[in-house]
Design goal:
The chain is of the alpha/beta class and about 140 residues long. About 20% of the residues lie in helices and about 35% in strands. The relative contact order is 0.27.
Length: about 140
């Protein structure tokens, strides 16, 4: 058994206009749908759409092949927002798989990790910008 605890700090949020200011570290990235809150009128995270990973998170966001699907999921006056969880190469895929398996993002419906987690038990403790994500969760191997 190789149980693992992963504890990334989620950095963000950036929209497409501010994405050049985002960290370019390796890690996972979360793509969100943001919209105005009806009460406050402020833009807020509404839904986790997609989880990806890259050796350069900002580059991964900018060049992800599913970007047209993200944009197509927006209603008028909504925007894409991004958060990045820096993570080394050894654990990036495992963290991505855990996030997808636990949260089931709508635009990751074709991911093998939705119903299958091919790693040993993994506990994730997120801190930072983690709206719409569980702060602490554990996923078990599902082959």
């Amino acid at each position: 058994m190789n149980d693992q605890i992963l504890s990334p700090k989620m950095l963000g949020y950036w929209d497409d206009d501010g994405l050049n200011e985002a960290t370019d570290e390796p890690g996972v990235y979360c793509v969100y749908r943001a919209a105005k809150d009806p009460e406050s009128g402020k833009m807020e995270v509404q839904e986790l759409l997609h989880v990806g990973e890259s050796g350069s998170a900002r580059y991964g966001i900018q060049h992800d092949e599913s970007r047209p699907r993200w944009e197509a999921s927006l209603q008028p006056e909504e925007a894409l927002w991004y958060a990045i969880g820096p993570c080394g190469k050894a654990n990036r895929e495992r963290l991505k798989a855990a996030l997808i398996n636990a949260h089931k993002p709508r635009l990751d419906a074709d991911s093998p990790y939705l119903e299958r987690f091919p790693f040993d038990r993994t506990t994730v403790h997120l801190y930072g910008r983690k709206e719409k994500l569980q702060a602490i969760f554990t996923v078990e191997r599902q082959d």
